[in-house]
Amino acid sequence: MNEQPVLMTDRLLLRPFTLKDAPVVRRLAGDYEVASRTLDIPYPYPDGAAEAWIATHKSEFRKGKSAVYAVTRIREGDLVGAVGLVAIDRRHGRAELGYWVGRPYWGRGYATEAARAVIEYGFSALGLHRVYAMHLSRNPASGRVMEKCGMVHEAHLREHGRRGEVYEDIDVWGILHDEWRVR
Questions:
Q1: 91: exposed, middle or buried (C-beta count within 10 Å: 0-12, 13-18, 19+)?
Q2: Edge-to-edge strands of the sheet including 130-136?
Q3: For residue 40, what is the DSSP state?
């Protein structure tokens, strides 16, 4: 599969990012409240970082390593965040789910809706056996998204990641193909 498919839910259109999305990515992901709840989003958000990140998506998808989506609202057309499967490992049939949602869109269920669509894509189109996700332990809202997606809490890893100079506890969640189908 060379071209990344578009995914739809009741309220959301998940599509590949374009360079036109970069200013909105910079604004939403560069918000301290969003960035500080992740290990990998830099703060302050550097100029050119959104463009560089977006520029990797197409080749990483074609190599089978990731499928990253712009999460947009169908009616309004606005970008609300990102969701994707990264670290796709065909040999072991697994991938890591990742997502972020801009602060103006928090509390509306967009992360859960988008994550469910990407998990379904991973199991049905990519033939994955397992999807897992990790979040900073101090960000329980992200864990609630994972739980609503049917994921099982598998581990609490003490000081497993580092944000700046601070080591952070990480919680790990996962769901298997058969568990997803039973839902």
A1: exposed
A2: 7-8, 12-15, 67-73, 79-89, 94-101, 130-136, 166-176, 152-163
A3: S
3-class DSSP assignment, residue 51: helix
Over 101-121, what HEC string results?
Answer: ECHHHCCCCHHHHHHHHHHHH
Burial of 33: CB neighbours in 10 Å, binned 0-12, 13-18, 19+:
exposed
Which residues are CB-contacts of 48 (< 8 A; sequence separation ≥ 6)? none
The radius of gyration of the chain's CA atoms, rounded to the nearest angstrom, is 16
* DSSP of 66-102: -EEEEEEETTT--EEEEEEEEEEETTTTEEEEEEEE-
Residues 95/126, Cβ–Cβ less than 8 Å: yes
Cβ proximity of 131 and 95 under 8 Å: yes
- The per-residue pLDDT for range 50-109, each reduced to its tens digit, is 999 999 999 999 999 999 999 999 999 999 999 999 999 999 999 999 999 999 999 999
pTM higher than 0.85: yes
Q: How far is CA 24 from the centre of its chain?
A: 16
- Phi, psi angles (nearest 5°) of residue 75: -65, -45
Cβ neighbours of residue 36 closer than 8 Å, sequence gap 6 or more: 43, 163
